[in-house]
Each structure stands twice: as structure tokens, then as C-alpha cells.
Amino acid sequence: MILGVFGPWQVIAILVVALLLFGGRKIPELMKGLGKGVKEFKDASKPEEEKPTDEKANE
To answer: Domain segments of the chain: what residues?
Structure first.
């Protein structure tokens, strides 16, 4: 297992590299976009009967 479980030093190193690459101001924007993407993916993966329908509101 080369990629195994990340330890605390690996996580810290990844966070430092991300901070250096993107800067402090850009990281919250990236996380917001990531959160929206995950939410859209979850909504798209739900079966049709569980999805809220906007068609009823339009009638």
C-alpha cells in the first residue's frame, strides 16, 4: 500500500502546498464551489420520486 492512510504530517504538507498555490483569498471560493458541486451531484443521483418537483409550483 503505497498510498495508505494519510498521517497528520501529510495533511499539513498538503494544506501548506494548497495555501502556497492558491493563496488565502482563493481557498474559500474553491471550497464553496466544491460544496456546490457535491450538492448538485447528490441531487442528481437521487431517484426521481425523491426529487422535489418545480412543475407543481408553475401550475
So the answer is: 15-41
